[in-house]
Write a structure and sequence with these properties.
The protein has a single domain, classed as TIM Barrel, CATH 3.20.20.70. The N and C termini lie far apart (40 Å). Helices cover 43% and strands 15% of the residues. The strands form three sheets. It has a four-stranded parallel beta sheet with strand order 3-2-1-9, sandwiched between helices. Helix 2 runs parallel beside helix 10. By secondary structure, it is α/β, with parallel strands linked by helices. Pathway: Carbohydrate acid metabolism; 2-dehydro-3-deoxy-D-gluconate degradation; D-glyceraldehyde 3-phosphate and pyruvate from 2-dehydro-3-deoxy-D-gluconate: step 2/2. It is an enzyme of class 4 (lyase). InterPro entries: Aldlse_KDPG_KHG, Aldolase_TIM, KDPG/KHG_AS_1, KDPG/KHG_AS_2. GO terms for molecular function: 2-dehydro-3-deoxy-phosphogluconate aldolase activity. It catalyses: 2-dehydro-3-deoxy-6-phospho-D-gluconate = D-glyceraldehyde 3-phosphate + pyruvate.
Length: 215
Amino acid sequence: MNQLSEFHRERVRAVLSASPLVPVIAINALEDAVPLCQALVDGGINVLEITLRTEHGLKAIEEVRRAIPDAWVGAGTVTSVAQYRQVEAAGAQFVITPGVTESILEFGVTSEAPLLPGVSTVSELMMGYALGYREFKFFPAEVAGGVPALKAFSGPFGDVTFCPTGGIRRDTAKNYLALGNVQAVGGSWLTPADAVACKDWPRITEIARGSLADL
């Protein structure tokens, strides 16, 4: 059985250490991709998770990689190996999944784009742990137990680090980041739908800057 390389772990750690906040970005209009992501970067956030929740995800990854080369641009909501291959081809620098399958975990071990696998239970965590994964997305964080669950995970898995996502708000992010096993937090509050619909990029920048200041 292949094991996750130290190279992959270093890449994932680099992403998680680059920003304590990881925006969950859904692109509904392709022309919004670059200005939205630039607004986040202008606000101090340089890790961008562009999800495959819309038809524009793949193209948005390509365009943002070209336009903002200094940011970490990755793919979220990847649910199959086929999608994993697609986002790699689009230039994603990391991949985040909402959950895990054996095939995705095994593919991630040797992929060009390192994987942050999503887990919500100890059993799922142990699947990845057996292959060498030590960094995970905890999703959906609030529904799956929130801060108390992550505290409990730290007992048997003291060498595991999480990026919780799902139901976390601007005013609760710092509660997660106060935990020793949390390095970053994901959230959609950084890109409110009304601001994106109005193309209010200065507001996005201010939300990003203010959210970082709150931590």
